[in-house]
Amino acid sequence: MQYQSQKVAMPYFIAAIGLFTGQILFGLIMGLQYVMGDFLFPAIPFNVARMVHTNLLIVWLLFGFMGAAYYMIPEETESELFSPKLALLMFWIFLVAGALTIVGYLLVPYAGLAQMTFNDLWPTMGREFLEQPLPTKLGIVVVALAFLFNISMTILKGRKTSIALVLLMGLWGLAVFFLFSFYNPSNLVLDKYFWWWTVHLWVEGVWELILGSLLAFVLIKVTGVDREIIEKWLYIIVAMTLITGIIGTGHHYYWIGTPEYWQWFGSVFSALEPIPFFMMTVFAFNMVNRRRREHPNKAATLWALGTGVMAFLGAGVWGFLHTLAPVNFYTHGTQITAAHGHMAFYGAYVMVVLTIISYAMPMMRGRAANSEKAQVMEMWAFWLMTVSIVFITLFLTAAGILQVWLQRVSETPLGFMATQDQVTLFYWLREISGVIFLIGLIVYIASFFVEGETKEAA
Amino acid sequence: MNHPPQPHFVRPCTRIWLVLVVLTAVTYSIGEAGLGGKNVMLFVLAITLIKSQMIASYFMGLRKTSPMWRIIMGSWLVIVGGMIASAYLMGLQ
Amino acid sequence: MSQTFTKSMARNIFFGGSAFFFLLLVALTFDTMQVLPKRDHRENITPAVERGKMVWEKNDCIGCHTLLGEGAYFAPELGNVYKRRGGEFVKSWIKSMPTKVPGRRQMPQFNLTDQELDDMVAFLKWTGEINTSKWPPNIEG
Amino acid sequence: MPTPSITLHNHKPGAPPGDLVIWLFIFAELLAFGIFFGAYAFSRSHHVELYNQSQLLLNRESGAINALVLITSSYFVVRAVAAIKQGFSRECANWIAGAIGLGGVFIVIKLLEFNAKFSAGISLSTNTFYMFYLSLTVFHFMHVILGMVILTAVMLKARRGGYTPEDHTGVETGASYWHMVDLVWIILFPLVYVIR
Asked: Which of A235, B50, B87, C25 meets the CB 3.0–4.6 Å disulfide criterion with C10?
C-alpha cells in the first residue's frame, strides 16, 4: 500500500463480505421454500426473502465497487484521496441506510413500509430489484454523488490513467442510469421499458466497465505486464462490451408490448455479447502467461483468472443460450433465467470484487500476500464456491428445461404448480449445492484469520 | 514526380476496379430486367461473392497474408453466401 | 516499427463505438415511443388500472410472481391470469390466502379491500390485453 | 525502441495490413452484418411475396450508383496506400481526400433515398422487409460516416507528412476499415435491392 488514504477501502470490503454472507443465508431460505413451501411462513414470505437476497447482492457489490475505487484510485492517480473523511462518512451513511432498509423489509409488511416511506407521494417501490423505499433510493443517490465527487476530484488532481478513466466512466454511468429508477409511469409497458435502462444498462453496460478496470488493475499488479498492453486490451474489451451490450438491451424487449423489430435487434446484438467476455478470458490468461514477475499472492491471480472464465460461462454462454427470440419465446421467465442470473452475477461481479479484495486486503494489512496456509484456504474457498455455483446453475438449467418442456412446449401443457412439483428433485440438488457454497464462504471468511509466515509489503 | 515513364502501364488495382464496376453494372441490369428465380439468384450471388473475394484479396491485401486470415475471410463469405442461398431455396417451397 | 494504431486508437474506438450505439439506442427508443400507443392500448388505462398497478407494487407481488415473464419464478405468471382464471376467481383466491396446506408454497394474506381487489383485477385485465407478440406460448403462462 | 511491444503484434510477415486491432473490429463488424444478412434471408423465406413486392418500391438506381461510388472510393484508398509506400505524402492525402469526397456523395444519395422513404410514411414497423431494409442501410450508413471520420484523421496526418514508406500503418489501418465498409455494401446491394 503506497498511500495512507487507500486504507478507507478496508471497512467497505468488510461490510461487503458481511452482507454477502447475509445474501447467501437468505438464498438458502428461498431455496428451501422452493421445496418446503411453508418454511418460515408467515414470518419470512418468499417475496421478502427474495427482496433481501437480491438487494443485499446489489448493495454489497456497490460496497465492493466503492472500496475498490478507493483502493485503486490513489495508486492510479499517484495522489492521496481528495477526502478520506468524506469516504468514511459515506460508508457509515450507506451502511446504516442499507441496514435500516433490510430491517424494514423483514419487520414491516411491505405495504406498510411503502406507507411509512411516502411511497404515495412518488411511487417507485414494488418493482423487481428496485424495491427500496424512496428515502433509501434518495440516499443511494446522495452517497453515489459524494463518492463520485471524491473520486473525480482525486483523479482531476492526479495522474490520469486509462484504468482510472474507464472506472470513472463506469461509476458515473452507474449513478446516471440509476436515475431511471425514479421514473414509474402508470403504463406498465413504459415502466418496463425504462426499468431496463437501469437494470440492463447497469449489469450489461456500465458495470462491465467497472469489472474491466478492476480486473486490469489487479492483472497489472500481479503479472507486471506493461501497462500499455493491459490498457489497450481494456479499451478493446469495454468497447466491444458497449457496442454489443447497448443494443443488446433489445433482448428484454421481445414480449413486453414493445415493437417486434426488437426481436431482431435484440437477437443479433446479444448473440455478439459473449465476444467481450471471451476476450476477457483470453486477456486474463494471456497476461498471466506473459507475466514478468512471480507475485506472492497466488490467490488473487486465481480469482482474476476465475473471473474471466466464469464471466464468460455465466454471462456469455448461459446468456446466449436463451437470448435468441425464438428460443426466448419458450424460456422467458423460467428457471433458465434464474440459472443464467446466478452464474453471471457470481462469475462477473462477485468474483471480480473478491479478486480485488484478495489482492488489496493483505496490502492494507501490511503484507504483500497472506501466508501460504491462508492462501491455500482461500483457494479452497474459491473452488468450493465456484464449483457449487456451477452445480446450482446446472440444476436450475435442468429444472428450467423440464419446466419449459412440460409447461410451454407440450401439447397438453401442465399448470405452473403441477410443473413445479415435477422438478422438485432439481430444487433439492440446488439447495445442497447452496449449502456447499455457504461452506465455501465460511472457509473464505476463516482464511482471513489464519496466521503464518508473511512477507512485508514492498 | 519521378515516376519512370511507363506509357502503357495499367496498375493491377485499376484492372480490379474496372472488373468490379462491370460486375456491378451486370448486377444492376439484372435487377432492372426484373429477373428472378433460382438460377438468376445463384448467378447474382456468384458475382457478389467473386466481387467480395476480389475486394478482400486485392484491396484489403489479404492475398499476401498467412492462410489463417484468408480462411477466416473465406469462410465468412462462404457462410454468408450459403445462408443467403439456402434461405432462398427454402423460400421456394 | 512504431505503430499508429495504439492505445489511443483503441480508446477512440471505445468512445466512438459507445456514442454510436448509444445514439442508435436513443433513435430506436424514439421510434418505439411512436409505435407503442398502437400496442399497449393506453387509451384503456382507467383510474382503476392505475390504482391496481399501485396495489400490485405496494404488495411486492413481483417478489413471487412473473408479470409478462419478468419477476420471480416462485409463483405463476399473472400477465394472462385474467384470461386463464377470470376476475372473480382472482379475487376469491387472494381473499382465501394462505391455504396453510402443509409443505405447499404459501401466499400471504394481504387484507385487500374490495376496492383494491377490483382495481387489481382491472390492472391484470388491462395487462392481459397488451400486444405481447403472442407470448406466452399457451394459457398456462 | 522507446516502448517495446506496445501493440498486440509487431508486423509479423503474413499479418494483414494495418494494426491487428482494426482487424479484430473488422471481423466483429463482419460477423454482425453477416448475422443480419442471414436473418434477412431467412425471414425472407417466410414472406417471399411481401419481400418481392416491397423490393420493387426501392430505388435501385441509387443503390447501384452508391455501389459504384464506394468501389471507386475504395480504389482511391488503394492508390493512397500505394502512394505512401513510395513516400508521396501529398499524393496519398489527395487520394484519401477523393475517397472521403466520394463517401460524401454516398451520404447525399443515401439521405435523398431515406428522405423519400420517410416522407412516404415508411418506418421500422411498416413490415418486416422495411424493418430490415432500414436497419441494414442505416447501420451501414453510420459505418460510412465512421469510416469517413477515420479517413479524415489519416488524411490530416498524411498532409502533415506524418507517414513514411517505412511507417504507414495508420494509412493501411484506415484503408482496411474503408474496404470493409465497401465490402458490406457489395453484398447488401444485391441482397436487398436485386435478388428476388
From this structure: A235
